[in-house]
């Protein structure tokens, strides 16, 4: 597949990146598909920016199709942590005649990047593009964990309805299904009905209220570390920090918290794609929201540079191993602590015939608090839910 055929090049003058800067900027270190150049060579690229100017699937946020270049204006002007050229900006996806055509093209492009072990960093566009991201993993036959930052849970009781506020219904109902776990953080209870929460619990998926996470933002790190695919809806951020969206709320994550989440995603060896959605420049105030997303992307790239390659299924001799006996010896939980990063994982028993299928899922990122919970003769909920899912 020649992915260059699916992109339109960037006009650098349109995004005002030609500035009289005396310092090194990210725009100078990126390999860019621009109108006066050639398509970037991807041999040494680790992260590929993919702009998607698509909002025809929007329920209430037309104008989000303008976000990609607006975010680039601020992203290209930031200072990099290294002068090494490992990020490419591939430009903007050429849209299909119908929105469904765009989904197909986007999923094929992402699948090709995943095969090349390049992380697609998607700048949307609206939330329905998350479905196209998921379909890319389906295309390559990879079972995944998905992590979303959103103020709502985008499900619909109507299985036939598909838009930016209902795409999860199609994603979770697709057959065969390649979604092992779904985690959503930041939902606001007045936007989500009890039936939806009960449904998520019955599927052993994880949902965390905004207030629950904001008590200690570091609790989110193991949750992000468990994800292959990350999606961020800017409506999860409070109106004062991100006014560029039509689904505003006075409550939400602070901008600093969004950047922390993005950095955790970058640090995770498991995270292989990330997308930023629902930024609407038509509603923005002096580019504030686009500027915030540019900062979040900077933090993701910064986190990527910190990666330790210490996911435990590699070399287990690089870990301290702890056995915790629970319920008078009826259950034993094995914990791993990385000697490189001091991060924790816990192992869920998995039958030999399923170990290959769930190779990347029966070791769950956790925290020292989970280890202490086990020492107190209590089994962490995430361990219980994962065991149930593997035995379905």
Overview of the molecule:
The chain contains 13 helices and 14 strands. Strands 1, 2, 3, 4, 5, 6, 7, 8, 9 and 10 form a ten-stranded mixed beta sheet that branches. It folds into two domains: 3-305, Arginase, Chain A; 316-390, no CATH class. The model has no long low-confidence stretch (mean pLDDT 92). α2 packs across α10 (288-305). β3, α2 (67-75) and β4 (87-93) form a beta-alpha-beta unit. Helix content is 31%, strand content 19%. The protein is an alpha/beta fold. The radius of gyration is 21 Å and the shape is globular.
Contiguous low-pLDDT stretches (5 residues minimum) are none
Number of discrete domains: 2
CATH class annotation of the largest domain: Alpha Beta
CATH fold name of the largest domain: Arginase, Chain A
The overall strand count is 14
Radius of gyration, rounded?
21 Å
Structural class: alpha/beta
Q: Which CATH architecture of the largest domain?
A: 3-Layer(aba) Sandwich
Query: Which shape, going by the Cα principal axes?
Result: globular
Strand content: 15-25%
Q: Can you give the mean pLDDT? A: 92
Instruction: Please work out how many helical segments DSSP would assign.
Output: 13
Give the CA-CA distance, first to last residue: 37 Å
Major pleated sheet: 10 strands, mixed
Please give the share of residues in helix.
Answer: 25-40%
- CATH homology-level superfamily of the largest domain: Ureohydrolase domain
Order of helices and strands: EHEEHEHEHEHEHEHHEHEHEEEHEHH
């Amino acid at each position: 597949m020649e992915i260059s055929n699916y992109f339109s090049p960037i006009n650098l003058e349109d995004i005002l990146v030609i500035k009289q800067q005396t310092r090194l900027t990210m725009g100078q270190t990126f390999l860019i598909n621009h109108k006066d150049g050639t398509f970037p060579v991807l041999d040494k690229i680790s992260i590929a920016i993919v702009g998607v100017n698509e909002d025809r699937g929007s329920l209430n946020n037309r104008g989000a199709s303008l976000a990609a270049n607006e975010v680039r204006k601020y992203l290209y002007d930031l200072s990099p942590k290294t002068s090494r050229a490992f990020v490419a900006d591939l430009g903007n996806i050429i849209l299909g005649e119908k929105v469904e055509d765009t989904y197909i093209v986007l999923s094929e492009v992402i699948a090709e990047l995943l095969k090349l072990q390049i992380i697609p960093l998607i700048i949307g566009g609206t939330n329905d593009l998350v479905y196209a991201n998921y379909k890319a993993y389906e295309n390559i036959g990879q079972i995944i964990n998905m992590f979303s930052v959103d103020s709502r849970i985008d499900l619909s009781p109507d299985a036939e309805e598909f838009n930016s506020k209902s795409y999860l219904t199609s994603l979770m109902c697709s057959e065969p299904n390649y979604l092992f776990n779904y985690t959503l953080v930041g939902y606001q209870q007045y936007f989500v009905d009890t039936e939806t929460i009960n449904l998520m619990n019955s599927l052993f998926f994880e949902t965390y209220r905004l207030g629950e996470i904001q008590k200690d933002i570091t609790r989110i790190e193991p949750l992000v570390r468990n994800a292959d695919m990350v999606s961020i809806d800017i409506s999860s951020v409070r109106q004062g920090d991100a006014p560029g969206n039509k689904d505003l709320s006075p409550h939400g994550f602070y901008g600093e918290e969004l950047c922390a989440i993005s950095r955790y995603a970058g640090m995770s060896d498991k995270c292989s794609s990330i997308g930023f959605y629902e930024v609407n420049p038509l509603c923005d105030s002096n580019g504030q929201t686009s500027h915030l997303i540019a900062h979040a992307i900077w933090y993701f790239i910064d986190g990527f540079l910190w990666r330790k390659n210490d996911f435990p299924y590699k070399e287990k001799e690089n870990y301290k191993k702890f056995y915790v006996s629970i319920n008078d010896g009826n259950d034993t939980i094995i914990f791993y602590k990385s000697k490189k990063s001091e991060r924790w994982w816990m192992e869920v028993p998995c039958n030999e015939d399923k170990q290959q299928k769930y190779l990347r899922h029966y070791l769950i990122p956790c925290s020292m608090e989970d280890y202490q919970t086990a020492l107190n003769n209590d089994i962490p909920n995430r361990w219980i839910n994962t065991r149930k899912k593997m035995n379905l």
